[in-house]
Amino acid sequence: MDSTLPAVAEELLKEIKKAFQETSHDTFSFRLKFIFGPSAVPALDLVDQRSVTRVTSPSGRAAYQVLGSSGKLYTCYSSCHFCTCPAFGFSVLQKSESLLCKHILAVYLSQAMGACQELTVSEEQLTSILLAEEEDEG
């Protein structure tokens, strides 16, 4: 993970990955809630529902799509800790109330838990996915 997340958050996500490899699943709930606040439980719900899909193209470009609880698909970029959801724009960027939205946190947790769906698409399809998000915002 990139160093733009606070070190404590990065360390916690590394511990979660290790814990899931060792199958001690329930030990980090309190820490998740403490660090990530109200996004923690909804993010875990998204992971449980297998709502996170890593979309890759033959060139190696990748983005994540998360099916939100409202049924809307959000595109997330883990490399720059960005999500297209309104909560990210408001709570994370505008007000600085949270480190991440539930969708980005679900991406990181899915990676750590090995619960990410995988989808390979053509370069054109990935471009369409990315452009569709721009059109939705405009």
From TrEMBL:
The reply on keyword Heme is no
Q: Which Pfam families match?
A: SWIM
Record's InterPro entries? Znf_SWIM
A single Gene Ontology CC annotation of this entry is: Shu complex
Q: What keywords are annotated for this sequence in UniProt?
A: Metal-binding, Zinc, Zinc-finger
Q: Which GO terms describe its biological process?
A: double-strand break repair via homologous recombination
Under PROSITE patterns, the record lists: ZF_SWIM
- Tell me the ranges covered by the SWIM-type domain, including all copies: 74-112
* Highest taxon of source: Eukaryota
Molecular function in Gene Ontology: zinc ion binding
Is Ion transport included in the keywords of this UniProt record? no
In Swiss-Prot or TrEMBL terms, this protein is called ZSWM7 protein
Q: Which gene encodes it?
A: Zswim7
